[in-house]
Fold this protein.
Amino acid sequence: MESFVRLQNRRRFLEKRFDYLSLVPAAAAICYPFLLNAFHAFVGIQAESPPALAIASATFILVVAFIVPFLGIALACRPTSGPGSRRLAYASVVSPTLYVFLGVVQILIKSPIPDEVVWCVIWIAIAIWSQSAADPVAPAAPAVGAWRVVHGVTAAVLSLYVVFHLANHLFGLIGPDAHAAVMKIGRVVYRSAVGEPLLVAAMLFQIGTGLFLAWRWSAAAHDFQRTYQVASGAYLSVYILGHMNSVFIYARSFLGIPTDWNFAIGAPTGLIHDAWNIRLLPHYALGAFFVLSHLASGLRAVLIAHGVDQRNADRLWGVCVAMSAIVAAAIIAGMSGLRIGALAS
Ligand code: HEM
């Protein structure tokens, strides 16, 4: 009995000394680009269908790549993690979009170092920081009341653009011409001399307030719903910043190309068969999925604050998340070449 107690104490001591699970998000993030490389090795650069086994292997690898951010969300929920480890888990959620951002910056600065090398160095640095970060006791609910309201109000306004923008991408399922026609109508407003600066300023404001809220909330452990809201918001902050960098700086200024359908799908090779472009697939899919489900998380919080029964609010949230996944999958299917006409015939 005594030796059992001693053994238990020793185990607790070792667990307290080093929490190996806290490094799993960094390990998963480091694997991320290599999973995409493995996907590319299986599908190749040929548009003709590869053998069935290669398709199955590539699909499995892509699914594993998609698990990286969701593993980060699961690990961010752990009540036993310190703030450093929890923030590392949150950071790993943004891997798919951060890898696109990094790739674009690498092109802009004409870096001779492979993306994978820079990526690994970044994650090792973040992992070391996460373990050495101080462990202050954080309040379960930080005092961020006014910022939450401001963030929510701007989100409601920006959601008008986001809903139009994603609906525009759904027209890709009909074809590039339909996508271009809808974009032409929207551009009258969001690319006007007044509309565009306002949109960019509002997006930057949203990123700023979002990152502030995410930093404060990530100091302590929370239930799944709150963790999901923080994690999806963190993803969106990096996504929108990187996305605007790609649109305004990389495409329009650096390359001087139009930011149209061909730019979005990485023409001429497309999303699937290009070694670089494949990183756009999880980046876009999760961008569309997280923006819609993040709005749903906000709606859930507002409903509960206004007296709606939590179970009903949760049910509505679940429906919205399922719909977000369907919309994201449909956009990516269209961008990858699926056409509604082809399904009907
Ligand atoms: C499948 C997902 C997405 C794709 C393929 C995509 C693609 C594009 C493209 C092609 C443009 C250029 C539009 C133009 O030239 O008129 C653009 C602009 C933009 N996108 Fe997205 N986008 C996606 C999701 C999102 C999301 C989720 C957000 C915000 C949360 C967002 C925010 C923006 C912003 C702010 C601009 C700049 C608008 C401007 O030209 O003034 N995008 N996007």
Q: What stands out?
A: The first helix runs from residue 2 to 17. DSSP finds 14 helices and no strands in the chain.
